[in-house]
Design a protein that fits this description.
The complex is a heterodimer of chains A (about 250) and B (about 375).
Chain A lengths: L1 E6 L1 E3 L21 E3 L1 H17 L2 E8 L4 H10 L3 E7 L8 H13 L5 E5 L10 H9 L3 E11 L2 E8 L2 E7 L3 E5 L11 H9 L3 E5 L30 H10 L5
Helix pairs in contact in A: 2-5, 3-4
Chain B lengths: L16 H28 L6 H7 L8 E2 L2 E2 L3 H14 L1 H21 L2 H12 L5 E4 L15 E5 L2 E12 L6 E8 L2 E8 L5 E5 L11 E12 L3 E6 L2 H35 L1 E2 L2 E2 L4 H29 L5 H25 L11 H13 L4 H13 L6
Parallel strand pairs in B: 3-6
Antiparallel strand pairs in B: 1-2, 4-5, 5-9, 6-7, 7-10, 8-9, 11-12
């Protein structure tokens, strides 16, 4: 099974998020770039499939030259090779449409049975690129996959929906977007990191070809009001019930 | 959220891509797999053997060696891994230091090709555990006087003697034992289960409680002559091994100190007395300022030491200075952190007291603080105070 995993490096905003004075971007100084969480699970899933069934895992990313570090991390985890589409122009010039068309173009030159994406990126959260790539390549796609099985030559994928799950049978080639939490991504071992260091990562320069989405303004959500401490231990129960009644949460 | 330690002089910005990634792996391993279990293991004096295969899988064991299944990372990366492991607990770093620096390194450096092939890949993967037998009940700071005998008898050597304060003593599948022969001190690989070889645990420790510390006893223990390390003759090779371990201790101590410092800093900002966070009081700020100052100096020491070691130029005096300084530094930081935490600081719900207790042993093993003082004294004056 040949799998291409498309991944993105994003700012590690776990620690803090600050909006630049122009209101159109995040302050990146002092923050590290990390592999997008959903994409990390996609890499892990692809490696597990390779380990179980054989095949090859190729990592494809679009971003600045520094994104090779993220590609190397995926190779250190166990992917076989990496390709960077080095993005020309400002980050703002790249919307989901341009990204998808550049990735689709690159995928035409690669052999694959499956293409994996993370569900969405942790920064833009557009949730468009994977499906737009499938559309551009004319391939079937399932969005938000939480489990992949192989049965009698068919690929069976499950996605969560309200009140249950949807089950699809696919034949390759196909595009899947995968959700965070479907597996626990491994840490790259030191041996893997040293191997990845020696791997050459092919780079192709690409320019945006479509109009980007125009970002008007970034705003932080309003601060949430602080909680109220009603008491400690059993003594707090009557007051808690009173509050819950008031809020109409218990009757 | 992952751990992020103080880095006032921006040493992180000097790390390359692979060094950052290596530390990330070690850091997440400690956060996810060591810290959740360490309190319980310390309390009941259990070494978490379940971590051994993980240490091997992730490539932490003998990571700075090339080939034979070792990862082959540079000395700085190796130091960063040791720092993270000791941020977890000194016992976890001790396990890795002994396995890598005191067992794998000497086999790699002084061993025969057969010995390397037989042991290094298994030790690197954590499928076998090693220990290092130099110290004896009567010979601690003065290892040159060791009394364990290895007498030649045909194709065998017959070992008699006792080694003590041995890390990994009862877990070990192989012990590297230093003994006196007719041709001087030599190193022998003794395998678990060899008749006449017993491994016993030292009980009732209040420091390094998680570590497997014990005794090795040899009673007419017959070792095939091919188990002797061919390239190690005299005491010097044994002392060279100690330099490897002391290097990793110098790094590890920074990890223990950072764990305590970050814990105390967070506590000082949260804990309110007299209507304001205790971090606003001058006496607490002085403690934090001292802690950060000493940590920063220690970080600079090991960073430069790593560069020297990478160039093959780190000498035993430089290593002694770093071990001596950094362990004493970590102990000071752990004690101050314990004080900032007040009464809470004496419980294992916080890390400081566990590190403080551990560092008592770390200060004494691999060359006592005092012996390192005298190594420096000898280097400065050319006059030895102990030989």
């Amino acid at each position: 099974m040949k799998i291409v995993v498309c991944l993105k490096r994003v700012l590690d905003t776990q620690e803090r998020v600050e909006i630049a004075p122009d209101g159109k971007r995040l302050v990146s100084t002092g923050l590290d770039y990390v592999m997008n969480t959903h994409d990390e699970c996609a890499v892990e899933e692809a490696i597990r499939i390779k380990e179980a069934k054989g095949g090859q895992v190729t990592v494809l990313s679009l971003g600045p030259s520094g994104a090779t570090e993220t590609i190397r991390e995926a190779i250190a985890m166990g992917a076989d090779e990496g390709l960077l589409l080095e993005a020309e122009g400002d980050e703002e010039a790249w919307g989901p449409k341009s990204t998808a068309s550049a990735l689709a173009e690159a995928l035409k030159g690669l052999e694959f049975d499956l293409v994996f994406f993370g569900l969405e990126s942790g920064d833009g959260s557009h949730h468009q690129v994977g499906l737009a790539v499938a559309e551009a390549l004319g391939l079937p796609a399932v969005d938000g996959v939480k489990k992949i099985d192989f049965q009698d030559g068919k690929i069976v994928v499950r996605r969560a929906v309200e009140l249950g799950e949807e089950v699809f049978e696919l034949e390759p080639p196909a595009v899947l977007t995968l959700v965070d939490g479907m597996n626990r991504p491994r840490h790259p071992s030191l041996r893997g990191i040293m191997l990845a260091k020696r791997k050459e990562i092919k780079t192709i320069k690409v320019a945006p070809r479509e109009e980007p989405l125009r970002l008007i303004q970034l705003r932080k959500p309003p601060e949430r009001a602080g909680g109220e401490i009603l008491g400690e231990g059993k003594g707090a129960i009557p007051k808690l019930l009173e509050k819950l009644h008031e809020a109409g949460l218990v009757r | 959220m992952g751990f992020r330690g103080a880095d006032l002089y921006e040493l992180d910005s000097l790390l390359n891509e692979e060094q950052r990634l290596i530390r990330k792996t070690a850091r997440e391993f400690v956060d996810e797999e060591v810290l959740p279990i360490i309190k319980g293991a310390f309390e009941v004096r259990r070494f978490p053997t379940e971590l051994i295969p993980r240490l091997g899988e992730l490539g932490f064991l003998g990571a700075n060696l090339e080939g034979y299944g070792a990862a082959g990372v540079d000395e700085l990366s190796y130091g960063l891994v040791m720092e993270e492991l000791e941020r977890g607990d000194s016992a976890i770093r001790s396990f890795a230091s002994v396995q890598g620096g005191l067992v794998m390194w000497p086999i790699y450096t002084f061993g025969s090709e057969e010995q390397k092939e037989r042991w290094l890949p298994r030790l690197a993967r954590g499928e076998a555990v090693g220990c290092f037998g130099l110290t004896e009940p009567e010979f601690g700071s003065n290892p040159g006087g060791l009394q364990t005998r290895a007498d030649r008898d045909g194709d065998y050597y017959v070992l008699n003697g006792v080694k003590t304060w041995i890390t990994n003593a009862t877990l070990a599948d192989v012990a590297l034992v230093w003994a006196r022969t007719d041709e001087g001190i030599r190193g022998f690989l003794v395998e678990r289960g060899t008749p006449g070889f017993t491994q016993a645990k030292i009980e009732h420790k209040m420091s390094l409680r998680t570590s497997d510390t014990g005794e090795l006893v040899f009673t007419d223990c017959r070792i095939p002559a091919e188990n002797m390390l061919p390239q190690a003759q005299g005491l010097k090779p044994a002392l060279m091994c100690l330099n490897q371990a002391r290097y990793s201790i110098a790094w590890g101590a920074v990890g223990a100190a950072l764990a305590c410092y970050e814990e105390a800093r967070a506590y000082a900002l949260e804990r309110v007395q007299f209507g304001r966070p205790i971090g606003s009081f001058q006496l607490i700020q002085e403690k934090l300022a001292e802690m950060l100052t000493e940590i920063t100096k220690a970080q600079l020491l090991v960073f430069r030491l790593a560069q020297l070691k990478e160039e093959g130029r780190a000498d035993h005096v430089q290593i002694s200075l770093a071990k001596r300084n950094n362990v004493a530094m970590a102990q000071m930081v752990a004690r101050s952190a314990r004080e900032i935490l007040g009464a809470n600081g004496i419980t294992l719900d916080y890390q400081a007291v566990r590190h403080l207790m551990n560092l008592e042993a770390v200060k004494t093993y691999e060359g006592t603080h005092e012996i390192h003082t005298l190594i420096l004294g000898e280097a400065i004056t050319g006059l030895s105070a102990f030989k």
